[in-house]
Amino acid sequence: MDAGAIVAARIARPGGEAVPKGAARGTDNRRVRLNAYLARAGVASRRGADELIRTGRVLVNGEPGRLSMQVGRRDVVELDGRRLAPQRLAHILLHKPAGVVTTARDPYGRRTVVDLVDHPARVVPVGRLDADTTGALLLTNEGDLAHRLAHPRYEVEKVYEAEVEGDPTRDALRRLSHGVVLDDGRTAPARARRVAPGRIELRLHEGRKHQVKRMCAAVGHPVRRLHRIRYAGLTVDDLAPGRWRELTADEVQALRRSVGLAG
């Protein structure tokens, strides 16, 4: 699905976002695990929600919640006697600028990608980009979708453009395409092509830590600058660095279908 065709008409809002017409709205009516419900309500991360459930602070329909329990919008979920309601599902595409870390909170006080997204929903980044890497980054509060997009089993395509030292030869490109031996094993086959002197495009379905940088260094061309052009078919060509927009309903459906989630 070509994201560029979907996002033609937008209305700019204060605070840095551009919201497309037809953006996905509303809450999700499917039943979800209790920890996901709590995370959607904005009270804790999933891990933090598990601790709230274990300590008996969460009631579902008047009974203590259980870790394996699933709930829906008709259930009454309470934390410390206060009734909770999940936030609506949100799916955000951010053009990540350099110098921002990909996390919800940073213990060192650095600016995070969540700081850039002025949205009422509690969204978290899907996957990770290095602080000096720019480009397409998805943030959402839809846990199942985020998990599948980040899982190597679903082979979500990521496209990068790297400015490297030197000018890669055909042999270097062939090695990148066939797989490079790194300290954590050989990389999966990828697509590599030279787009300009000292610049290459890499299409990957893996998401190892610092993978593109390590691959390029392994073939003798360390990365000087790295930009993610596309993530799961979504591009940021029409977003300035630091700007963001909500995905359209069609884009959200396409993402769900790509990882085997119906509806």
The CATH level-2 architecture of the largest domain is identified as 2-Layer Sandwich
Task: Quickly give the structural class.
Answer: alpha+beta
User: H/E element string?
Assistant: HEEEHHEEEEEEHEEHEHEEEEHEEEH
Uncertain runs are: 1-22
Q: Helical residue percent?
A: 10-25%
The major beta sheet can be summarized as: 9 strands, mixed
Number of domains: 3
Mean pLDDT: 88
Outline: elongated
- Bin the strand percentage: 25-35%
CATH superfamily of the largest domain: Pseudouridine synthase I, catalytic domain, N-terminal subdomain
Evaluate the radius of gyration. Answer: 20 Å
Total strand segments: 19
What's the number of helices?
Answer: 8
